[in-house]
Amino acid sequence: MLIHALQIIRQELNTHLDSFGKTDDDQVQLGNISQIEIPDQGELSSLKNRIVITLVNVREEKTLKNSPFVRRNDVTLKAEYFNPPVFLNLYLLISASQSSYANSLIFLTRIVTFFQSKNVFTNQNTLPITDDTLVPPTERMEEFKLIMDLFSPSFEEWNHIWGTLGGKQLPALLYVARLVEVKAATVDKYGGLIQEIDMNFSHEIKKF
Questions:
Q1: Less packed terminus of the chain by CB within 10 Å, N or C?
Q2: What is the pTM of this model?
């Protein structure tokens, strides 16, 4: 489910950047930007001269922790009990690794403009990902709603982020993809539904 959310963002952003001039390879890649300095080895070489999306942090959305944990099955006419889903906020470092510093800034401007014009991604306004090599069928979300918010770290926080990654600082933005829903397709137990409520109460009066 995490990979599906990231691939949705990558695909949508790549389509937008292609509108300024399509290239043979995808301009947006998922990867660990700290590995860009490693000598070219397979897929790591694809991080150069690209827009690289790196997952740097994951936090649970506490405000939705107490969501309902029971639903009605209209086929079996039973109540299904399950553990409530986990809603995650993904902190995404979007780096521009172009050889030209000026081009990197141009790409960052286009990225900000794109997410300003479209910051909500759902299964209704995005193209489906059908390539199993990108997202295995078991990891796909049938319904989703991702909200992209620009996050502005302080100078100290930026220094800590790049220090943790252990690489040279590149022109970059930090976005939060909110409300990524993670849940297992399992039911803990079943129960009967309340179909009728008897409102007739009888009181027995005792005589003394």
A1: C
A2: 0.78
